[in-house]
Amino acid sequence: MKLKNRHPYMFISPAVLLLSLFSLIPILIAFFISFTDMNLKGLADWSSVSFVGLENYQSLFADDKFIKSIFNTIFYVIIGVPLVIICSLSIALLLNYGTSKLFTMFRAVYYMPSITNIIAVAVIWGYLYNTEYGLFNYLLSLLTVENVPWLQEPTIAKISLIILAVWKGIGINMIIFLAALQGIPKSYYEAAEMDGANRLQVLFNVTLPLLRYATFFVTVTTLIGWMQFFEEPFVMTDGGPLDGTISIALFIYKEGFQFSEFGYAAAASFVLFAMIIIVTMIQFKFRKSDTEY
Questions:
Q1: Which residues pair with 51 in a beta bridge?
Q2: Per-residue exposure over 169-197, b if at least 16 CB sit within 10 Å of its own CB, e if not
Q3: Long-range interactions of 230-239: CB distance < 8 A, separation 24+
Q4: Is the distance from CB of 2 to CB of 235 less than 8 angstroms?
Q5: Fewest beta carbons within 10 Å, which of 59, 97, 130, 215?
Q6: CA gap 290, 293 in Å, rounded
Q7: What is the C-alpha separation between 197 and 195, in angstroms, rounded?
Q8: Contacts of 196 (CB under 8 A, 6+ apart)
């Protein structure tokens, strides 16, 4: 059976080929590796690689370090995701109401952290978080507050990394919200003004409902990003102290690239993959039920 119009397939074939070579095929290979005991020796001699079935997955859920990484990741997601969404939406609303060039400059200021190299960010924030000489503790000392161990105590260290990640992640979401805000027809606001609605009523009855698609998109992408939380704990704490800041993504990196346990790391990556799929499906389910009313 001949295709009547082959041109669309010709245009998308390069993208599909690249996606298959660099995404789909590696995923399938990693899935196979997750059922083996492959390590650094196995890369040199494939005959030494043994099929172990579900042993890697069973070992993962008996591994205290992996369980801790799951709870840490949940902690990051529960606190970080709402903070990023609320902060980025609030800033977008404030910048959208401003018309002067000063507000245009602030857009660049808020977006800049998103494109700043994480290593440079880590160096600067490392000085800010320094227990003895850091700016944060200096400001607290002016209020006669004792030095806070920003990166030395597990719970405080997690909160410190969240603050850094929220600061760095606001920019992209702010741009998305700004684009959505500027796409709202002015006729809605004119109608609300004629009905005598105040600014607060306009915000909750006009602006926020019309931002539901942008909010849904930002929520899904932000949640997926935070479930793969890696850069901040990697460069700031390396998962410490006492594995108090290790995330699932950092656990996978350590097992795969530091300890060369590729089969074990691959199994952990598919556990994370399953978690992301489940959470995303739940979000789409809620979104679908919301649109039915």
A1: 36
A2: bbbbbbbbbbebbeeeeeeeeeebeeeeb
A3: 231/118, 232/118, 232/122, 232/161, 232/164, 232/165, 232/168, 233/161, 235/118, 235/119, 235/122, 236/122, 236/125, 236/126, 236/129, 236/151, 236/160, 236/161, 236/164, 237/151, 237/157, 237/161
A4: no
A5: 97
A6: 6
A7: 6
A8: none
With tokens 């660099």, the residue in question is 22
Beta bridge partners of 36: 51
**What number of other Cβ atoms are within 10 A of residue 117's Cβ?**
8
Average pLDDT for residues 41-67, to the nearest whole number?
87
Residues in the chain: 293
Segment 131-151 shows an average pLDDT of 89
Give the mean model confidence (pLDDT) for residues 227-240: 91
Q: Residue 123: which pLDDT band, with cuts at 50, 70 and 90?
A: confident
pLDDT tens sequence across 10-47: 888 888 888 888 888 888 989 999 999 888 777 777 77
Q: What does the alpha-carbon distance between residue 63 and residue 261 come to, in Å, rounded to a whole number? A: 14
